[in-house]
Amino acid sequence: MSHDFDAGYGTQPWASLVAEYPADAYPPADFRVEWGPIFHRGRLDGTARLLVLGQDPGPHEAFVRRILVGEAGQRAQGLLTRLGIERAYVMLNTYLYSVYGQRAGEQHAADAAIAAYRHRWLDALLSDGHVQAVIAFGHLADTAFRAWRATPAGHAYDGAYEHLTHPTQPDAAARGGTPFAVAMKKMLDNWNAALPRLHAAIGDPDSPRSLVLYGDELTAADHSAIPAADLPAGLPPWMTTLENWASRIGKSAEDKRANLTIVVPADLRPWRQA
Ligand code: URA
Fold first, then answer.
1. Residue 274's pLDDT band (boundaries 50, 70, 90)?
2. Residue 120 CA: distances (Å) to CA of 7, 22, 124, 137, 190
3. pLDDT score recorded for residue 251
4. How far is the CA of 136 from the centre of ligand 1 (A)?
């Protein structure tokens, strides 16, 4: 039996990029630097046709060491599935570390050292002309992409670009008092408006298929599992499933920040399976 995995950052320019990440640009008061930087997910071999720019990693990403693997990642992966993109994508985040505190993300949106490093990744991923479309999830990713587009390498990018609502914005809106169903429908309307343009922009998807738009609710079938080929070797299969297996637990803010708890989902415990 053979298992897919992502070989990581052994070739250039990725080896230099991960060696040279700007730790000092991220103040510990505003970023969870204690869990280390998390760089990307997806193809680094020039086969990506779609680039996804997310915001910042969460608890699941801290364990897996790849971005967009938790709920937001599985919703995003479902969007890619609708476009017939099953392998030919690459994902970056606006920030290497998880933001800490409500305003931290906004406060550092224009930081030169953070942007300069992100621009090195975007240069490396977009300058060969293979990527045909970019999706920025959320306004911080949109700001980040627009800043790159104002650079000389960014001027040369002539693919499609869509700024979409972040996949977990409805969850954040619900915490702020907006009914979840209302916020979710708004997000799906936003995604549905962009899908035909993205579908038309990607000339050679992995699995060409007719475009089917989202309904008013996001269902379990609208999520896609993260392919093992995107993840470091040897990860247990339950870490790639749609279940929520990582959370921050603690009685105080200090404890919560210092703890990440992983629980093997009850229905996926190998010792319980025949
Ligand atoms: N949300 C993002 O934008 N990126 C991640 O890596 C995880 C959640």
1. low
2. 21, 12, 6, 20, 30
3. 95
4. 11
Cα of 271 from ligand 1 centre, angstroms: 31
The reported pLDDT for the residue numbered 242 is 80
pTM: 0.96
Which one of 93, 135, 223, 226 would you pick to mutate in the ligand 1 pocket, going by the greatest count of ligand atoms within 8 A of its CB? 93
What is the Cα Rg of the chain in Å? 18
The pLDDT score that the predictor gives to residue 175 is 95
Instruction: Give the contacts of 233 (CB within 8 A, at least 6 positions apart).
Output: 3, 5, 6, 7
| Cα angle, residue 235 at apex, residues 231 and 237 outer, rounded to 5° | 100
Residue 1: pLDDT band (50, 70, 90) is confident
